[in-house]
Amino acid sequence: MAKFVVLAKSKKHKGRVGMLITKRGVLITPAFMPVATYGAVKTLSPSELKSIGTKIIVSNTYHLHLRPGEDLIERAGGLHSFMNWDGFILTDSGGFQVFSLENLRKITDEGVLFKSPIDGSEEFFTPEKVVEIQYKLGSDIAMVLDYPVPPSDRNTTLKSLQLTTYWAKMCRKRFLELKHPYQIQFGIVQGGLYPDLRLRSLKELMDIGFDGYAVGGLALGESREERNSILDVVLEEIPEDNIRYVMGVGLPEDIEDAFKRGADLFDCVLPTRNPRRGTVFTSEGKLNIRSAKYRMDFGPLDPKCECYTCQNFTRAYLRHLFTVNETLAGRLASLHSIYYYNKLLEKLKMEVLSESGLIAVPSCGNNDQGG
User: Fold this and answer.
1) Catalytic hit among 146, 257, 267, 302
2) Residue 364's pLDDT band (cuts 50, 70, 90)
3) Which of 53, 85, 273, 361 could form a disulfide with 342 if both were Cys (CB 3.0 to 4.6 A apart)?
4) Would you call 267 a catalytic residue per the annotation?
């Protein structure tokens, strides 16, 4: 149903350029996925996302199940139709909520009992149910239910690995039974900061067989060095003809670290959460536009950026918008931030293509859609 092809490999590190070929179309990698938890990237429209090079977004199965519900979305023609997005959609399984909603859930071998943060009602998520919800959502890439844990002792980490594998088997079985016409499914490697457990997790997932593999359980409290050490171990063991997704790693330098170790796909809330609070990444480093020192600064947010925000508005104006709590502030800052991330991956991609002597893929300027 899907095929991943490596187009070029770096001669300086393990970074690569590839394409995921599916019934939806072709996704060129490396690619960054803005987070659209409820079927929307906060403050930005689908047309704006396209204009800055976004080709794929990630939505959340758990939250969409709670509101508005997968049955409603299915009646609307699926998540693509519901939100008017014709690019790729990856749906997380709710595995992160197993970590983040620790005080509102109970884990069993059969799944996770969640207490709704909305009304307190209880909802039991089995691996099979997660697959069934994603089937109705109609995402292009569906993630298995997993059990991520922060850096923990070996016994706790081993338990999370064992449950992740057990749930992955049930997810895969149900996925193959449903036979979605275009959806593909990724397994998620756990194992914490223990290299041998990570390799065990990967082997068990590969024995089950998935369309792609993700490295989960990172950016949960470990150091940059610890994270890179795990990526060095795991990414090299994922076969070259499989797409490799590093989950939740979102600082620009961390994305570059992962890419140079062989990762293809990335997501994080930082490029939209931080800008709504006034912090953005620029070619000059991280910038807090709320700072009083920008009150009389009539230069662009980033002098080297060609995004709509930087081409049309000053730091002084953006600071003013944040000061008066104007909604436009977060929109303009988010627009720049996602553009910045897309350009970062475009730069990494072009460096690899240049090393290989291949024809360049078009850059993601204002009228480009990132392909």
Assistant:
1) 267
2) very low
3) 53
4) yes
Select the more confidently predicted residue: 310 or 118: 310
Q: Rounded mean pLDDT of the chain?
A: 95
Query: 92, 146, 257, 302: which one is catalytic?
Result: 92
Per-residue buried b or exposed e for 195-223, using 16+ beta carbons within 10 Å of the residue's own CB: eebbebbbebbbeeebbbbbbbbbbbebe
What is the C-alpha to C-alpha distance for residues 256 and 343, in angstroms, rounded to an integer?
12
Residue at 100: amino acid letter: S
Residue 182 CA, chain-centre distance (Å), reads 20
CA distance 68 to 66: 6
Residue 133 near residue 83, CB atoms below 8 Å: no
Q: How many CB atoms are located within 10 Å of the residue 252 CB?
A: 16
3-state secondary structure of 169: helix
Rounded Cα distance between 164 and 148, Å, is 8
Q: Is the pTM of this model over 0.85?
A: yes
The DSSP bridge pattern shows strands 243-246 and 212-215 to be parallel
Distance CA 25, CA 296 (A): 47
367 pLDDT band, cuts 50/70/90, is very low
Strand 141-143 to 88-92 pairing: parallel
**Cβ-contact 240, 262 below 8 angstroms:** no
Query: Residue 43: is its pLDDT beyond 80?
Result: yes
CB burial readout 140-157, b (16+ within 10 A) else e: bbbbbbbbbbeebeeeeb
Per the annotation, the verdict on 153 as an active-site residue is: no
